[in-house]
Amino acid sequence: MADKALILIVEDNRDMLDIYCRELKGEDYLTDTSDTVVEAFKKIKRGTYDVVIIDLKMPGLRPSEMGGLEVMEEILESSPSTQIIVVTGYGTSKLAREAFKEGVYDFIDKPIDYDELRRIIKNAILESRTKVQKINPFCPKTGVEPKVFGGRFKELRFFENKLKEAEEAVCDHFLVLGDWGIGKTMLLREFKMLAQKKGYIASIVPLDEFGKDSTVLDGVECIIQGIFRDLPFTSSKLETFTKQLTGLGVTIVGTGFQYSRELSKSKLQPQGLLYDTLLSLWEDIKKNKGKLMVVMLDDAHYFEPISGILTTIKQVLSNETIVKKTKILFVITCLPEKWNEFISLKRHHPVGRYFLSKINLPPLSKEELVYTVEKTLENTGVTFSPEVIERVYLYTHGHPFEMQVLCRNLYETQIAGKVDLAVWEKALQNTLVDLGTAIFDHWFNEASKGEAEVLKVFSFQETPLTKQEITQLLSERGSRISSGNIGKYLQRLVNKKLL
Predict the structure, then answer these.
(1) Band of the pLDDT at 2, cuts 50, 70, 90?
(2) Phi-psi region of 399 (alpha: psi -120 to 50; beta: other; left: phi over 0)
(3) CA 274, CA 411: separation in Å to the nearest integer?
(4) What sign has the CA pseudo-torsion 252, 253, 255, 259?
(5) Alpha helices in 169-319 (DSSP H)
């Protein structure tokens, strides 16, 4: 075996972990261990294991769940090539085999026969390596984390400096600005792992689109729920936080909030709610020996319909009590053009003065792209020729999303594990189709209802249309758009690159 396989053993009993390591020592693979579900999640997200051995009945994140099941779910979602071996106790073997057969490579009962375990591991490694070769390792889909995080060394050093400043002095909240598909969310995930590695608490809050009727309170609720959802602690460990919400008539249900009948949401002040929540959360973090908490708001451009939300965040973070009594560092990602709109003189200019520190996320450098492609191809049995990798950079200019789409199509055109210039044209044609669809869908989702109606009129016509013809066609389709607004919609469609 060219590269040693990686085995992760997930078991909450430290004595058992020592026995595992002793019994499996000297084999043709490397072993790693985790004694909690949280630690197992971190390690699974950080790298790809060939095999994970899981004790099914270890404590989980959710009181009602077995920890082993939670780890299995994470592996099946994030690392489908990893083979799972489940360890079951006396009396649970039959139940486990019936309930969790799907996605599990094999089961082994306690007390463990280590000769049998070694045999199962070796077969599972072969299965894992075979499965890896069948799975395209390039992941262009939104929300699916690519196999390899390439480069971004300058940005990671920037973040490390901000962590040091926050713990030793004050929190310098900062921005990550970058275009769609440039890798903002991936960078936040790396930030989170780096913060956790240093012993800090970190939470990523993925923001969703808000409607035109959304309020500042809706935005604040989204932030609070997102922080709580991504914390490594349950509500029992967050007593001050829970008590504060209960006093307001808010109950934590799973990872969401439920309001009592007596509570009128209109009576809640969003600025006060965010202020009190951050203070109470910090008290709980300190009780759990936390030195710093990092809150990362991803895709702040979705705040666009909520006038005043960024001002509210700024006012809370700049409050003297928050500054002096807490160590909570905020990181915000946003599209550059949307941020410029937020901080224009007519709207949120004080916010721009407050969030002065920023990262303008560029495409990958050539070295970073080459590293990412070559590391992604490791252990797949597939190689890209140097000429192909050179063209990948030339055509994508290091844009992470475009690189993933192009490399995915190149991987699909392999011949006997080789990808060279002979298959380039076909892969490029498929990539242009994929990118055209993905980018148009993204742009179309940015269109308002009225803009979409005008755009649909053009989609059924093969010749240019006058304003009068557009008005007539819209009327025939039952549209209520007035002729006076058509010019406005046309201009907006041109600005959004849809016309």
Answers:
(1) very low
(2) beta
(3) 48
(4) negative
(5) 184-197, 216-230, 239-248, 270-287, 309-317
Query: At 112, which amino acid appears?
Result: I
Contact 190, 368 (CB under 8 A): no
230 pLDDT above the threshold of 50: yes
**In the predicted model, what is the mean pLDDT of residues 404-431?**
90
> What pLDDT sits at residue 347?
55
Q: Read off the pLDDT of residues 466-495 as tens digits, 9 standing for 90 and up.
A: 878 888 887 777 777 777 777 787 787 777
Alpha helices in 135-177 (DSSP H): 153-168
Q: Would you tell me the crossing angle of helices 309-317 and 270-287 to the nearest 10 degrees?
A: 40
Q: Which residues of 80-91 are buried (b: 16+ CB within 10 A; e: fewer)?
A: ebbbbbbbbeee
Phi and psi of 48, rounded to 5°? -100, 125
Residue 77, H or E segment: helix 67-78
Sequence-separated (6 or more) residues with CB below 8 Å from residue 472: none
Rounded CA-CA distance 8/473 in Å is: 63
Residue 76 burial (10 A CB sphere; 0-12, 13-18, 19+): middle
- Taking residues 352-376, what's their average pLDDT? 91
Helices (H), 343-466: 349-354, 366-377, 386-396, 400-412, 424-445, 449-459
Sorting pLDDT into bands at 50, 70 and 90, what band is 385?
Answer: very high
Q: Of 172-181, 299-308, 354-363, 374-383, give the lowest mean pLDDT range.
A: 374-383
Collapsing DSSP to helix, strand or coil, 32 comes out as: strand
How far, CA to CA in Å, does 162 sit from each of 22, 257, 321, 334, 368? 41, 32, 20, 19, 23
Q: Indicate if the alpha-carbon torsion angle 212, 218, 220, 221 is positive or negative.
A: negative
Task: Report whether pLDDT(440) > 70.
Answer: no
Query: Of the candidates 38, 30, 36, 31, which has an alpha carbon nearest to the alpha carbon of residue 10?
Result: 36
